Amino acid sequence: MAPPPAVADALDDEFADAFPFESFNRMQLEALPAVLETDENVVVSAPTASGKTALAELAICRTLRQEGTALFLAPLRALTNEKEAEWDRFEDLGYSVYVVTGERDLDPRRAERADILVMTPEKADSATRKHDSPRYSFVTDVDCCVIDEVHLLDSDRRGAVLEVTVSRLRRLCDPRVVALSATMSNVEDVAAWLDAPADCTFEFGDEYRPVPLTAGVETYAHGENAFADKYRRLYRALDLAQPHIQDGGQALVFVASRQDTVRAAEKARDVLAERDVSIAATADEYDFYTEAEELQNKTLRQSVVDGVGFHHAGLSKGDKDRVEKWFKEGRVQLLFSTSTLAWGVNLPARCVVIRDTKLHDPLEGEVDMSPLDILQMLGRAGRPGYDDAGYAYVVCDGADAERYRRLLRDGKPIESRLAEDLDAHLNAEIALGVVDDIEDVMGWLETTFYYARARSAPEAYDDAASLLERVSATLGRLVDAGFVDQSGLRIEPTQLGRLASQFYLRLETAEAFHALCERAGDLDEADVLQTVADAAEFDSVSARRDEREAFGAVLGGEAGQLDAGNRKVLAILRAGMTGTTPGELQSDAWVIRQNALRLLAALRAFCERFAEPRDANLVSRVAARVEHGISDDAVGLTAIEGVGAGRAQKLAREGLATPADVRAAGVDGLVAAGLSEGVAEHVHAQALSLPSVAFEWCDVPDRIRRGENAMAEVTVRNEGDGAPAGIRVTVNGVEMSSEARYLGERTLPVGVFGGNADELTYEVEVAFPELPLHPETDSRTVRVD
Question: Which of 162, 407, 643, 662 could form an S-S bond across to 121 if both were Cys, CB 3.0 to 4.6 Å?
């Protein structure tokens, strides 16, 4: 079948088949010449659901026509997966689409050969930081970068990442940039940052919305009990949604957390039943009932047949896909979701209500939902092709009402968030070699949105001279703190600066880790845990009264000098090491543990560089216990590929507590311990591949006379696969020699000196810094006569 005429007119080649609609809309047609017929950078600000994705695809088409590589930056990982599925249209035309996700999953050859790359800003940041490595060299071959939802620049945590990543990419390979955004009041600032000319900068107003929007702010009767207030807001939200539901429309209600989506859906079913509002599936909808039975989430299974659903990131992909499909089909008329849905799947509804304007962040405590999220959610109101109008409401306390009315009336300019972590980001650019002299520092600053926005609004930022002074002062602090070396106009990173950049550390945390390493060889588990719990990344963690009682029971008097929030972090780590996290701490435990594991990986690298292998090994064992909730004596089992917390605990209960025990047990012994034969064979093979140390002493006398000397030696042999190791020889606890090496086999001299001591105990210790294996030791004792 021939392509629809309007698309064929604009795209008179194979790419017309990549668009699944009949014609471009008014907004798309106005921007099309700039996107498709020039190589200029383009900035487009347009209402949600107005069709910006087609502009992204047009930019990609132009790049592919020119045999180039396009990079699409999506705000959420879930959206990258959605694009991979959607863009099989390009695959059908013979072009390769590759989503770059985690480090372990990266296929460098596929990435190198891809015509379209899809990443989140965080993944693109990581890739551009590693651009000079063979695995990530593909990122320097990008010819066009499409930024979806560029207003993410104003996001508290993620905005600066997007800003520096795009600036870095432009310095590395200078791609064409096409930036797409929801409505923003200062589109010209983004255009100035990206050097988009006036005729390639577009600001489309509400008249371009496919469905007119009516937005308002509604208040509720605020009480003293936060739990009861949730239900007051829920009743208000249902009051607003009910007329649209009864008229056959749909309502999307945004709440603060995953748990809230479930609880609100359960309560809404009861309330609607009490109000005699019937939206349940009818008895003759047999196929729907049958498909609902296939949902993994039991509560969702019961809810959707009543016409009420919920959606959050914790649901299985299959459950989320079904809920989205049913909502689009109208089978689910009322859907409760977290804010992430507003940034991801295109799922509009006639009525959108934001029930919660505040949310609990495990790392920040109670915070206001960002204005960006508010506007993004409200923009989902109105379903093109189905609704004549969209209705959007913010439900809030009366004290906040005017603030939200002003947001809806005036919008919000997009601000730079770079200043909040300027020192860490400047250090990263120096560590990467992107900036290597004083002139480069100033040149880098001028490539940032921070600089462009400051020029536009000096009253809110600094003027240009003050900005330069600020960056100069920041550079001076980096030099003074040891992150950067300066010689005349030249600057270069130190190892401390490189590690801070590699692990995305706050610089205060990097300094604390470096200070801990000065106590090399004398660290213990408490030092490691308390240093991580006290990291600057956890400064905003708060502790409620019930949480304080819970972590007091876990910690007793340990680390009383820490603030309450940091003691909460420590308690979660301590409890997690034994797999017994108190219920009061569980809601924040996962997020805190994930951040702690990242910090522990950084601390291990710091110990490898600035302390000793045995210190790095200690950190590896602590990290494995935090991750798997396993006892100290069995932690080495987690070094075996295929052995996680559950399997390690099962083996430990059967008396197999170390990789050596697993090797000795053999496949039959592992089967007897409860593993299936296939799993037992895999686990045994992996255990055999781990380091296995044997010691051989030569010429060590049993006795020596005072004043006499003898030379002996000890051979350390790794009978498993080679691995980095630290070898340390001591006599009576005093170090004689130490070295770090990739261990296969190594012979070390041992001097035996008959001195004043009556007995000499020689000990050799082998520690593997990258593996959670307990150090292996062997010793010999010599009597002195």
Answer: 162
Rama region for 658: left / alpha / beta (φ>0; ψ in -120 to 50; rest)? beta
Instruction: Note whether 509 and 502 are within 8 A (CB).
Output: no
Q: pLDDT tens across 750-774, in order?
A: 999 988 899 999 999 999 999 999 9
CA separation, residue 777 to residues 254, 259, 723, 729, 768 (Å): 58, 49, 17, 10, 12
Torsion sign, CA atoms 619, 620, 626, 629: negative
Q: Are 424 and 500 in contact (CB under 8 A)?
A: yes
- Report d(CA 232, CA 240) in Å as an integer: 13
Q: Mention every residue, 6+ apart, whose C-beta is less than 8 A from residue 165.
A: 73, 121, 124, 125, 128
Q: What is the mean pLDDT of residues 421-449?
A: 91
pLDDT, one tens digit per residue, over 577-598 is 988 888 888 888 888 999 999 9
**What is residue 545's predicted lDDT score, i.e. its pLDDT?**
83
Residue (of 322, 313, 312) closest to 292 by Cα position? 322
Separation CA 362–CA 352 (nearest Å): 26
Q: How is 643-657 classified by DSSP, letter by letter?
A: --HHHHHHHHHTT--
The residues facing 352 across adjacent strands are: 252, 392
Look at residues 411, 378, 380, 396 and name the one whose alpha carbon lies nearest to residue 154: 411
Bridge-based pairing state of the strands 703-704 and 709-718: unpaired
Residue 464 pLDDT: 65
| Predicted TM-score (pTM) of this structure | 0.84
Does the pLDDT at position 736 exceed 50? yes
pLDDT at 105 over 60: yes
d(CA 653, CA 569): 29
User: Which DSSP string do the residues of 492-535 spell out, in sequence order?
Assistant: EE-HHHHHHHHTT--HHHHHHHHHHHTTTT---HHHHHHHHHTS
- Cα 81 to Cα 461: distance, rounded to the nearest angstrom: 37
Helix (H, G, I), strand (E, B) or coil at 636: helix
Secondary structure (3-state) at 750: strand
Is pLDDT at 104 greater than 60 in this prediction?
no
Separation of alpha carbons 464 and 452, rounded Å: 10
CA 609 to chain centre: 25
Is the pLDDT at 568 greater than 80? The verdict is yes
* Nearest Cα to Cα of residue 265 among 275, 274, 254, 250: 254
Q: Report the length, in residues, of the chain.
A: 785
pLDDT of 3 > 50? The answer is no
**Contact, 525 vs 617, CB < 8 A?**
no
Alpha carbons 136 and 116: distance in angstroms, whole number: 15
Asked whether residue 5 carries a pLDDT value surpassing 70, the answer given is no
**623, burial (CB in 10 Å: exposed 0-12, middle 13-18, buried 19+):** buried
* Crossing angle for the helix pair 438-446 and 449-456, to the nearest 10 degrees: 70
What does the alpha-carbon distance between residue 627 and residue 630 come to, in Å, rounded to a whole number?
8
Asked if the model's pLDDT at residue 139 lies above 90, the reply is yes
DSSP secondary structure code for residue 115 in this structure: S
Percentage with pLDDT > 70 across the chain:
97
Report pLDDT digits (tens) over 227-259: 899 999 999 999 999 999 999 999 999 999 889
Amino acid at 543: A
- Let me know: does 195 contact 44? Beta carbons within 8 Å: no
Non-local CB neighbours of 555 within 8 Å, separated by 6+ positions: 567, 570, 571, 574
Strand partners, 727: 739, 766
Torsion, CA 517, CA 521, CA 527, CA 529, rounded to 10 = 80
Q: What is the CA radius of gyration of the chain?
A: 30
CA distances from 77 to 82, 123, 166, 335, 509 (A): 9, 9, 18, 22, 27
**Nearest C-alpha neighbor of 296 from the set 269, 312, 277, 319:** 319
C-alpha–C-alpha distance, residues 655 and 632, integer Å: 14
Please report, in angstroms and rounded to a whole number, the separation of the first and last CA atoms in the chain.
Answer: 101
